[in-house]
């Protein structure tokens, strides 16, 4: 079995700690062996590439080097932002001149090549989906979920290689395997404005409102995401949106790993479903999960 | 025969040349279909659409281009790049324009976006990882919006989502050196 270098990324130690907890639970269920990368540091996220191209390659490259040094062949990054930055780096460093440049920015040059996966990719492998179906003993069909990909799992497609950048189905297939009810959703790859959440909150609220307001009339009672920025934007800002637009929107937002964990019989506390600001517990109680 | 073309790489134009070296994006290919702007989720908040920015670069209108808020408002969703029929990496052009504006010391039309990025990277350099509570705190201080997101602070805290104190992580020393080397490299240019 492949042992993956686990790159949690900064948010999974803070605002997205429930993504970390549920990732560990879901990976244990689905046979993904994780070993946290020792000494990992920030990938630079959007601020890196938004202001300095070379920094945006060098910061992830340091982590890729660590993974190779620690004997890993593959790395998994649950955070969509980290995943995208690591993949961009792998891609751009195929150019020998860029690689030489980045090597000179690090304490030691990169050796070998480590593959980078999103957790969504790994869970979508046929055997894992089958295993998930097998393990999904708890009845979840009362959860009617839209799959929300946002930007960083699918764009740009040459670098992130989703099944389809405009109509991806990876998360959809995972939701179906959990036994929850999938609600088809054409807005699944629209941006939530996460990168502007602090600096232009008005824009983030507007884009987030559009998503919530479109998902609810389709009958969704929950949204599933794989991105901490999307989750934070969608989960924590519903009260602000309702105040700002005089709406009454309420839609619990789940990490897909939490839904996988629920399907396999894990508890609300263990999956940290009690730390979302838009409380999913009333909904879960409705479908018989406490 | 080589056609005369409008390009970022016009010779003896120091500004255009710097853009080209950074981006390696060929904006000559753009035929102004406007698809990037049509699909841009934040075009409504821009004072010029992405396709107009590309046109501005084709026409060497640098002052006009860098004076727009387009590249500060860009949310980096990469929809434009993904849908461009001419394979112009529009999102990367936006990144490049931000870099250029920072280098040129052009006062950004969206000061808060610039402050956010700078504060974010400052914490990464200081600790090795992003420090969320510090990001919000310092951002509010520097952007002069002391109470921004304040209504989220308490619920985030009570839901156990906040690390109150920063911590220095292993590897921070190398991260600091990376920042230093990047700055030195760019000064050499």
Describe this structure in words.
The complex is a heterodimer of chains A (290) and B (189). Helix content of chain A is 46%, strand content 10%. With 290 residues, chain A is of the alpha/beta class. Chain A has two domains: 3-119, Glutathione S-transferase Yfyf (Class Pi), Chain A, domain 2, CATH 1.20.1050.140; 138-286, Rossmann fold (3-Layer(aba) Sandwich), CATH 3.40.50.11810. In chain A, the strands form two sheets. A four-stranded parallel sheet of chain A has the order 2-1-3-4, with helices on both faces. In chain A, strands 6-5-7-8 form a four-stranded parallel sheet, with helices on both faces. In chain A, helix 1 crosses helix 13, helix 7 (126-135) runs parallel beside helix 9 and helix 9 (170-178) packs parallel to helix 13. The radius of gyration of chain A is 19 Å and the shape is globular. Chain A starts with a strand and ends with a helix. Chain B is mostly helical and 189 residues long. Chain B folds into two domains: 14-104, Alpha-helical ferredoxin (Fumarate Reductase Iron-sulfur Protein, Chain B, domain 2, Orthogonal Bundle), CATH 1.10.1060.10; 111-188, no CATH class. Chain B contains eleven helices and no strands. Chain B has helices at residues 14-23, 35-39, 50-58, 62-67, 70-73, 79-83, 90-104, 111-127, 132-143, 150-158, 172-188. In chain B, helix 8 packs antiparallel against helix 9 and helix 8 crosses helix 11 (172-188). The longest helix of chain B has 17 residues, at 111-127. Chain B is globular, with a radius of gyration of 19 Å. Residues 1-12 of chain B have low confidence and may be disordered. Chains A and B meet through helix 2, helix 3, helix 5 and helix 10 of A and helix 6, helix 7, helix 8, helix 9 and helix 10 of B.
């Amino acid at each position: 079995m492949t042992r993956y270098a686990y790159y949690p990324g900064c948010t999974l130690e803070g605002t997205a700690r429930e993504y970390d907890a549920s990732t560990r639970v879901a990976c244990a269920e689905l046979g993904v062996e994780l070993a946290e990368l020792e000494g990992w540091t920030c990938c630079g996220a959007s601020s890196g590439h938004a202001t300095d191209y070379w920094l945006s390659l060098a910061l992830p490259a340091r982590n890729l080097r660590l993974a190779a040094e620690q004997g890993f062949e593959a790395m998994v990054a649950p955070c969509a932002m980290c995943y995208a930055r690591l993949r961009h780096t792998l891609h751009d460093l195929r150019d020998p001149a860029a690689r030489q440049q980045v090597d000179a920015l690090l304490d030691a040059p990169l050796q070998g090549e480590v593959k980078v996966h999103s957790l969504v990719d790994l869970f979508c492998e046929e055997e894992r989906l089958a295993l998930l179906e097998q393990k999904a003993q708890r009845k979840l069909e009362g959860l009617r979920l839209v799959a929300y990909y946002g930007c960083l799992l699918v764009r740009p497609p040459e670098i992130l290689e989703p099944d389809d950048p405009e109509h991806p189905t990876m998360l959809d297939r995972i939701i179906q395997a959990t036994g929850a009810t999938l609600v088809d959703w054409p807005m699944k790859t629209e941006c939530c404005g996460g990168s502007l959440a602090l600096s232009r909150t008005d824009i983030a609220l507007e884009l987030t409102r559009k998503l919530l307001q479109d998902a609810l009339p389709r009958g969704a009672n929950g949204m599933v995401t794989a991105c901490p920025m999307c989750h934070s934007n969608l989960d924590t800002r519903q009260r602000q949106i309702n105040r700002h637009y005089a709406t009454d929107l309420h839609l619990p937002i789940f990490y897909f790993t939490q839904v996988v964990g629920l399907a396999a019989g894990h508890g609300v506390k263990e999956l940290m479903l009690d730390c979302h600001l838009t409380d999913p517990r009333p909904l879960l109680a409705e479908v018989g999960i406490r | 025969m080589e056609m005369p073309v409008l390009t970022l790489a016009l010779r003896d134009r120091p500004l255009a040349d710097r853009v080209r070296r950074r981006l390696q994006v060929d904006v000559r290919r753009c035929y102004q279909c406007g698809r990037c702007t049509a699909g841009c989720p934040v075009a409504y908040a821009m004072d010029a659409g992405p396709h107009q920015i590309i046109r501005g670069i084709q026409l060497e209108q640098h002052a006009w281009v860098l004076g727009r808020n387009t590249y500060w408002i860009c949310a980096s969703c990469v929809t434009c790049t993904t849908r461009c029929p001419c394979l112009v990496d529009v999102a990367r052009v936006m990144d490049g324009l931000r870099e250029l504006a920072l280098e040129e010391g052009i006062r950004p039309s969206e000061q808060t976006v610039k402050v956010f990025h700078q504060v974010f990277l400052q914490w990464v350099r200081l600790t090795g990882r992003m420090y969320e509570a510090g990001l919000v705190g310092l951002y509010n201080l520097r952007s002069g919006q002391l109470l921004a997101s304040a209504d989220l602070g308490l619920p985030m805290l009570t839901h156990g989502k906040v690390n109150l104190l920063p911590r220095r992580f292993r590897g921070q020393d190398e991260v600091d050196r990376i920042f230093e080397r990047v700055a030195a490299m760019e000064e050499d240019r």
